[in-house]
Specification:
Ribosomal Protein L30, Chain: A; 16% strand; globular; 6 helices
Length: 129
C-alpha cells in the first residue's frame, strides 16, 4: 500500500502539461481513451449532485473570453493544455466563451488560467455545471 501512496504523491506533483503528456502516453501504450471514462463520470456525477446537499465545487471549467493581443501565444498554450490540432486551437482562441478545459480540479484550472493569462488571453474559471 505504501507504493500506491508514493505513486499518488508523485502524480499529484505533476504540472498540467506533464499530466497531459502522461495521459497521452498511457492512451497510446494501452490503446484506450481517457475521454470515455470522463463522460461516464460526468453522467454519474450529475445524478449524485442532484441527491446530495449543496457543497463547494471541486470541478471547474476554464473559459477563454478573449485571445488577447498575442493570439499566437494563446493558441500555443491552448494546444499544450488540450492536445488539439492547430486549426481547432485557433478556432477555440477566436471563439469567446470556448471551454479550454472542462471539469478539472481547482489547481489544474488555476494553472491553466495562469498560463493563458501569461500568453495575453482573458480567461475565466467557473465551477463546472
Amino acid at each position: 500500500m505504501a507504493n500506491i501512496e508514493k505513486l499518488v504523491e508523485e502524480l499529484s506533483a505533476l504540472s498540467v502539461l506533464e499530466a497531459s503528456e502522461l495521459v497521452k502516453t498511457l492512451e497510446e501504450k494501452w490503446g484506450v481513451s481517457a475521454a470515455a471514462p470522463v463522460a461516464v463520470a460526468a453522467v454519474g456525477g450529475a445524478a449524485a449532485e442532484a441527491a446530495a446537499p449543496v457543497e463547494e465545487a471541486t470541478e471547474f471549467d476554464v473559459i477563454i473570453k478573449d485571445a488577447g493581443p498575442k493570439k499566437i501565444e494563446t493558441i500555443k498554450v491552448i494546444r499544450v493544455l488540450t492536445n488539439l490540432g492547430l486549426v481547432e486551437a485557433k478556432q477555440m482562441a477566436e471563439t469567446a466563451g470556448s471551454k479550454v478545459l472542462s471539469a478539472v480540479g481547482k489547481d489544474a484550472a488555476n494553472d491553466a488560467k495562469g498560463k493563458l493569462e501569461a500568453a495575453g488571453a482573458a480567461v475565466e474559471v467557473k465551477p463546472a455545471a
